[in-house]
């Protein structure tokens, strides 16, 4: 059993309890169920591809693509949800990206150095 499956299975009772005791339980309309179903299927397939790429590929080649999703989600938040990024969010974003790029760069330069044995 994978960690993602265990996490989902353990979160399900808490989600169900929150929905039952929150008082705002509402079910989607028929067309929304189709959208929810498609989102679950596409999200699951995307996660499967992500895990497969991390197992098969070199991490230094894959991580830049993982960091690029931060930009796409920022744009999505602005365009779809009307969010406006504040200064602390942009500083945190820059810190995450700069440290990730540094780790990748450091790993590549360390691999190029000859070992002293």
Question: What features would you describe in this structure?
Answer:
The chain is mainly α. Helices cover 82% and strands 0% of the residues. Helix 3 (59-81) runs antiparallel to helix 4. The radius of gyration is 20 Å and the shape is extended.
Q: If helices are DSSP runs of H or I spanning 4 or more residues, what is the number of helices? A: 4
Question: Outline, from the CA principal axes?
Answer: extended
Gyration radius (Cα, Å) is 20 Å
What is the CA-CA span between the terminal residues? 41 Å
Fraction of residues in β-strands: under 5%
Mean pLDDT: 81
What structural category arises from helix and sheet content?
mainly alpha
Helix content: over 70%
Write down how many β-strands occur, each being a DSSP E stretch of 2 or more residues. 0
* Helix-strand pattern: HHHH
pLDDT < 50 runs, ≥5 residues: none
Overview in brief:
The chain has helices at 3-22, 30-56, 59-81, 87-112. The protein is mostly helical and 117 residues long.
Distinctive features:
single chain, 117 residues, mainly alpha, 82% helix, 0% strand
List the helices and strands and how they pair.
Elements: H1 3-22, H2 30-56, H3 59-81, H4 87-112
Helix pairs in contact: 3-4
């Amino acid at each position: 059993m994978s960690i993602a499956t265990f996490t989902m299975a353990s979160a399900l009772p808490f989600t169900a309890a929150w929905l039952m005791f929150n008082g705002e339980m509402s079910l989607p309309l028929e067309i929304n169920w189709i959208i929810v179903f498609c989102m679950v299927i596409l999200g699951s397939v995307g996660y499967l591809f992500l895990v497969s790429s991390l197992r098969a590929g070199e991490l230094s080649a894959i991580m830049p693509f993982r960091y690029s999703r931060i930009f796409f989600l920022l744009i999505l938040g602005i365009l779809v949800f009307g969010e406006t990024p504040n200064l602390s969010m942009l500083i945190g974003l820059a810190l995450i990206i700069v440290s990730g790029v540094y780790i990748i760069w450091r790993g590549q330069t360390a691999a190029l150095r000859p070992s002293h044995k």
